[in-house]
Amino acid sequence: MVERAGFWRRGVAAATDLILAQMALQALVAxxxxxxxxxxxxxxxxxxxxxxxxxxPAGVTVPSGFAVTSQSLCTSRFFAPxxxxxxxxxxxxxxxxxxxxxxxxxxxxxGSTAMRVLGLDALFYPLFxxxxxxxxxxxxxxxxxxxxxxxxxxxxxxxEGMAFARLLARRYARFAWIYVPGALxxxxxxxxxxxxxxxSPTLAALAWVAQNALVGAAQLTAAMAIWRHADTFxxxxxxxxxxxxxxxxxxxxxxxxxASPTGPGPLLDLANALWLAxxxxxxxxxxxxGVMIVVFAGEVLFPWAPATPAGLSVETLMAWGGxxxxxxxxxxxxxxxxxxxxxxxxxAHLVVNLAALLVAxxxxxxxxxxxxxxxxxxxxxxxGSLASVTFNPPEMIxxxxxxxxxxxFAAALPLGTALPRGNQRRWLWAWALTVCIPAVTPGxxxxxxxxxxxxxxxxxxxxxxxxxxxxxLAWRNGLALxxxxxxxxxAAAGLAGLVGITVxxxxxxxxxxxxxxxxxxxxxxxxxxxxxxxxxxxARYPDDPRVRYGLALQEAGSGLAAQATADLDAAxxxxxxxxxxxxxxxxxxAHAGLGANFFDAGDLDDAIAQFTAAxxxxxxxxLYRQRGISELYRGRGAEAVSDLRQALTIDPKEAYAIxxxxxxxxxxGLADPIAATAQEADLQKWPGQLVRYFDTKASIDRVxxxxxxxxxxxxxxxxxxxxxxxxxxxxxxxxxxxARPLFERTLATCPKTFIEYRAALEELAGHGGLPPG
Length: 773
Known about the structure:
The protein has 32 helices and six strands. It is mainly α.
């Protein structure tokens, strides 16, 4: 028999045994990692070291649209290596908020190539169970129990001891089965990856749910039972039930904390549970799950733009009703606040939310009723959407039922007090805490999901918690909140109609609207293509805002500034009505692109106006630099210096801004800041060699040699830039006769779209530091 100990002593015992089990797993992987060539690994580690990476290893494909700001090769170790992984980070600043997303991919032990691996983390808890069983059965108690001085009686080979051994084996078999689903999903994922050559993000997400949420809820339920001294293992050696199954219908009738009888085992328990569940299926839960599946099928079958490896395109999500601040609030499309709840960005995203919704349905819907369940889902989802558009950057698109599902779990915290003390209430609270806390914890992400909308999660949880408190208070005051049959049917029909209309408005408009746009296969790849083909495309696709934008680019290059501005305004207005791309993104790129064309055409005043409009949408370093250069050649040196300093505030490593700030400061009569600003630049990477030239006044021949510019054919773009900035340095030294031919050679070698080409024209025209003549 095992001594009945208190919560803290048993907690110390469990923590000790968990650490030992983790050390055993790490030792196993350390032995197998090198022998398997790095294919057998673990995601949990005691120690990890990283070194900067210059590029992604061979075979590693960073998801489309993931702009890498830093990257490393990391190795985890125990007494030997246990894991090798490439990690990339993307940081994006929007005001005071910095959003960080991470991408990781396993590599070979030396970090040179991508590698398919099998993680052995699923063995961790089975090892823990095996350690506990073997030590209790054969060693008189586990190391943790010995440390906590919890006595385990040695019954030897007596009849009582043999009976105890059988009960002990059944106890640990019941305790271990909760870890089986996660191990099975991992195994299936390994088989799929071996057969197809690529990992399944959907199975990876499902494995995360099984290995973390399910196991976490079970362990928390067990801890609650131990805290209440309600575990039957210590009362009679038959095994605990709090960590193995739900008390589905019996919890309401059982006495609080009553010990479960010794029955035939978990299989019969599961069969009884399924039979009881069939009699009262959570129909609203199943209906909501069905709507989510149907809508996702629509997204896949009727996309606006091709999907990416990370999931459906942003264009498709926006067309079907994705929510952001501008579209939902400022442009009068509030239906998106509700439509976004039923959209998902990938199959992995959908599977995770479906699993969470089904758990919530079987735990909560029968207790609060289907109508109230549906109301909490929808109202909590709306609260999450409102929080998303309020607190997220304006360009962040939000989709998914996470906020609505978290509202259900959050509502369960106050509503659970209406249940009798026992396993059902413990499971309900354990699931609520296991799901709600990680959902709003920074840094916690799911496989296959690169961006987590924590504002939506927090809004859903707060909304659900408030709804749960209100309903709980109503129950305590004797209000049943259960409508009559007719009222319930009418409300259910109204909710169904609301959902149906929302999905129709958000989704069925996509195929009809996409027919009015240039198909993806015909659409030009860049601004230059839209400019070239705009006239031909206008006859067939007059409503496509991108065609109008192409016309504006043509007109800007032809000196038709007023017409270009009018066509750009028409493109922006049309985009609001038709195109699914985020309105702010379109305005930003359109103003920036038109400003560049005005600059190339020498229309600096209109270029400055367009750059200013783009900066109102997004503060970007390169645009401050471009506007500062335009200001410089319009004779506004102070404004130019201010813009170039702002560019370096946003991105201190922006080498071209460092060069132009040095030029602008010298012409404005300010001290040259190159000595301070050059410290942030990468002087080994182009144009860092030019920054070093400006800073140290080294020989230009050394710059050419360091950049590999031994002849004009080596790299035309670098040759062009070298000639231009050498000319600027000559101007600083008042060597005007030497600068003029360098500017002329710049015109011969630079593409006309280069800033240096237009700047050389301005210098030769006497608008810069070069005297006329």
